[in-house]
Amino acid sequence: MGLQDTLRALADPIRRDILSLLKTGPLSAGDICSHFSVTAAAISRHLSVLKEADLIRDHREGKFIYYELNTSVLEEIMFWITELKGDRDDA
Amino acid sequence: MGLQDTLRALADPIRRDILSLLKTGPLSAGDICSHFSVTAAAISRHLSVLKEADLIRDHREGKFIYYELNTSVLEEIMFWITELKGDRDDA
DNA sequence: TTAACAATTAACTTAATTGTTAATTGAAGT
DNA sequence: ACTTCAATTAACAATTAAGTTAATTGTTAA
After folding, report:
1. Beta-bridge mates of residue A60
2. Relative to the CA of A64, which of A71, B52, B54, B68 has its CA 20 to 30 Å away?
3. Rounded to whole angstroms, how far apart are CA atoms A46 and B90?
């Protein structure tokens, strides 16, 4: 966890697309897979990277595992960028 | 250029530290190197990644090449995050 | 032109990431 | 218990990334 994990997770286009997919609400791993042309195993690993960064949360419902977005850790990036830009009032 | 390059560039702690160093103003490659415990060649490559992402600009002054921060491309990340968080009025 | 210095580029090594297929875990139904 | 389906984990191949040392480019000054 932390800024490093968050940025690393965001540095992959598939992972960003997964997050965008989850914008409208939780989806099962299978649902997510169906949007991509890579194998389920590959998506599963992307999901684990996103989960490690706490960008998504998961919960099982019967056979399905649902993933949902957690945007709270994005605040840290916003803060880092803001301070890099100078935290000035006049911006 | 684009979001992908920007995020990839930010996904490395040394590169983020370089950007932070440049917050106060331009520095030569040598000045930047002196803050890190890796070789000048390694820093030079980090600088080229940052430049490719347009996060820094460089200009030569005699023997020295000075680097300075360019924060404008960070807007794109801010926008992407904001829209991911839902662009709602109530936030 | 040669020497000295700043910085980059080249060549190479090692470690990390991404993808594949095959095997495994977990839950539901027969 | 056995099968089936959803999803993950394991094992491996291929690519990318980051670091090193050595060689090269560019600039200044003798």
Report:
1. A65
2. A71
3. 31
Residue type, B68: E
Element (H, E) at A66: strand A64-69
Domains of chain A: 3-90 (1.10.10.10)
**Using one digit for the tens of pLDDT, what is the confidence trace for A16-64?**
999 999 999 999 999 999 999 999 999 999 999 999 999 999 999 999 9
DSSP B22: G
User: Stated in angstroms, how far is A44 CA from D8 C1'?
Assistant: 7
Residue B31 corresponds to which tokens in the numbers above?
């000045």
- Going by C-alpha positions, the residue among A56, A38, A60 that lies closest to residue A47 is A56
Residue of A8, A10, A17 to mutate, testing the B interface (most B Cβ within 10 Å of its Cβ) = A10
Q: Which nucleotide is nearest to B36 (CA to C1')?
A: D19
